[in-house]
Amino acid sequence: MKLSTLKLSIFAAVSSATMLLAAQCASAKTLVYCSEGSPENFYPAINTTGTSFDANTQIYSRLVEFQRGSTNIEPGLAESWEISEDGTIYTFHLRRGVKWQSNKNFKTTRDFNVDDVLFAIDRQWNESNPYFKVTSSNHTYFNDMGMPKLLKSVERLDDYTLKITLNRPEAPFLSDLAMEYAGIQSKEYADALLKTGTPEKLDQEPIGTGPFYLVQYQKDAIIRYRAFPDYYRGKAKIDDLVFAITPDASVRWAKLQKGECHIMPYPNPADLDAMRSDPNVEVLEQPGLNIGYLAYNTQKKPLDDVRVRKAFNMAINKKAIIDTVYLSTGIGAVNPMPPSIWSYNDAIKDDPYDPDAAKKLLAEAGYPNGLQTDLWAMPVQRPYNPNARRIAELMQADLAKIGVTVEIKSFEWGEYRKRLQAGEHQTAQLGWTGDNGDPDNFLNNLLGCAAAAPGGGNIAKWCDKDFDALVMQAKVTNDKAQRTELYKQAQVVFKEQAPWFTIAHAMQLKPVRKEVVDFKLSPFSRHTFYGVDLK
Amino acid sequence: MIRFVLTRVSLVVPTFLGITLLAFILIRLVPGDPIETLAGERGLDPARHEALRAEYGFDRPILFQYGIYIGHVLQGDLGRSLITHEPVLSEFRSLFPATVELALCAIAFALPIGLAAGMLAAVRRNSIFDHGVMAISLTGYSMPIFWWGLLLILLFSVQLDLTPVSGRISVMYFVEPVTGFLLIDTLLSDQDGAFLSAVSHLILPTIVLGTVPLAVTARMTRSAMLEVLGEDYIRTARAKGLPRWRVIAVHALRNALIPVVTVIGLQISVLFTGAILTETIFSWPGVGKWLVEAINRRDYPVLQAGTLLIGATVMAVNLLVDLLYGLINPRIRYAK
Q: Are A489 and A470 in contact (CB under 8 A)?
């Protein structure tokens, strides 16, 4: 009797909670997103993970923004801007009447203005800024996007006009400013916290000018936001946004099925068929802004010979890798950047899978009896590569058919990258996820001559004068048509010289419940909920 | 008795120091560099890498680092996470109550059932009940937790819609943590239904986490009881004409409890160190998942402080178990 009473009570509790949730959703629209983990903190300039950016992007705004679902730039806190003819001076005209959020300990007294932008940049750039070391001095993206060397000065012309002078022209500069690290924090709030001796609260109890304000955060459990009614683009269509932190992909799927959340990221490939056949769920798909590749160390024999590299490219069966390792979650890569980036050269044909031709080419290069090489495989799963070890084994089998003996090597992840950057490998798998949607972020970062130095991101150690000249010229040209032409040529050089075997672009898959309206996939795999509604 | 307690407590200090040293050295022996791990695919140029190592003090000799660390610990400063930059102690404080709450529920679920089942199985030795209990407990003991958790979610949450899938409480309730123990906090808040929602969220994780301790307790109780039931004093008690159940529950069970309590103590220690798999499956914000993430990301301060705090908890539980021996068996109290 007692047991059944308890069972009934629990059933009643669960049912009433569900009904109440439904009722609440009807009156106040609450969108629940089953996020995959906890953010590092609420200061995007020191964050490095997509999970953290997702949590922060709801709160903060930037001078310029990526259009929803695209890599194109649109006005943000700056409503317009001019670029000098030589491409080194940017004058931003800031939006007036933009309100700051408040929280329980701080009520803002003024609107957003140029002082906030100056503070946001100075905090990351100037070591004597009182906030430089607050929370962390490791402003990863500000440094990685080359800002300390690029910026010459940042000046206030008046309350709503900002002048940024660069040391050299930099075409991707606007895209860089749309990235999460460039989120603007309130100078007034920062000053107030400094006075009370609690500066770290700036990054723990954040306020921004974004579409949602933070209501509650419990590590590994929940993040609650509420729509900011004074958001400069108008209040969000949903009233409350909840991140229910759910680390396991299968559990996220169970919650989505049951309606405990509306959107989930990073589904388990094994669950995809069930997701696609669920009448309440739609699986949104898009090639991700990423690439997985096998880099050939072009400074070491025998892979310094382009014929050997081409032979390898023709010997590896890409389709088999996509089918067996990526399952339905990847598309074969041809160029060193994904097709969703402007200036992608779709006229380029991939190297054919042709082991006989590969064998001949290898003989022509002076290796009629084959050769020996190593092949490094990451010890971890990455967004662009679900199983590097398995891919290495498939490549090993393919290369054996043309007489190449492959030894697979792996190291602890940090050690792995360190050794690759030092150039200890002959061939190695790695990959990249784009930061700002600019071709420079792939072509120059991963294949430019400067990046081939020890510690750089060019692990093929490939420095081709023609390729580098094209990419460097495109970097300092502001004319997009001209840049497109230069990048298209650079991709041709890349394919001819074959410093990589381009493996795949992993798909971005997002199961979404059908009551969700107008959720758009972000090419950067961000999850933004402004503009999203619930039926 | 006081001497007994003092002897036990005096052992705590060297054990405690040993734990800190071991945690400190071991994590540094694992290949991988926390600064590199922070960098991801982007990598770091050697100069910036060195500057960051110096900033965190990783460029100094290990023993020197250890000395500084112990100095800070003695002042109550356990450091800040390299990833979140939050004080480790405040992260532990926010996560540990969830672990303890779940662990206590798992124990409350496993102990009475395990003791009763083990006792009955011993009394009815070789009966169908005995074989059934042993088969079920062996299954429970060998069940892969991950599979078991997902199975329960699919059955009770998705198919039967009886329990929530995961989390500690429905997202519709906004309960500010006061004690961190949600069952208490929901009672303190005056939101209708919040307490029952928290209870309903506890059911599946409790069963999953309690399965192994339940199986261990049942098996241990059975074997200890079987041994005791064969003793002369049990025969004497029965011969005196005492009722059968009084002999079993008072004379036999109390004497059988010593090994059972030892095993239960060990199980409780394991539960308090966080149940990584249960916490992951049920999105339970506890310390187990926190520590494993710290290992993966080479978050030295979290790992050092987490090991230390959990070590202290385990030692406290063991001390309690030692003291319980004395209550169960007075002879142990006077042992020197």
A: yes
What is the residue type of A152? K
Nearest 5°: phi and psi at A106? -145, 130
A50-86 tens-digit pLDDT: 899 999 999 999 999 999 988 889 999 999 999 999 9
List the single residue in A21, A203, A432 with the smallest CB-CB distance to B41: A432
**A481-493 pLDDT tens trace:** 999 999 999 999 9
Contact criterion met (CB below 8 Å) for B322 and B314 = no
CA-nearest of A119, A178, A165 to A434 is: A178
| DSSP H helical ranges for chain B | 2-29, 34-39, 46-56, 62-74, 88-123, 128-142, 145-152, 182-188, 194-229, 232-239, 244-246, 253-272, 276-281, 287-296, 300-328, 330-333
Interchain pair B164, A14: CB under 8 A = yes
Residue B178: how many CB atoms within 10 A of its CB? 11
Say how many C-beta atoms besides its own lie within 10 A of residue A45's C-beta. 24
CB of A77 within 8 A of CB of A62?
yes
Kindly report the number of other CB atoms within 10 A of residue B330's CB atom.
10
Range in A22-26, A63-67, A396-400, B300-304 the model is least confident about: A22-26
Q: For residue A9, give the DSSP letter.
A: H
d(CA B263, CA B285): 26
Angle at A436 between CA A435 and CA A441, to 5 degrees: 70
CA nearest to A29 within chain B: B172
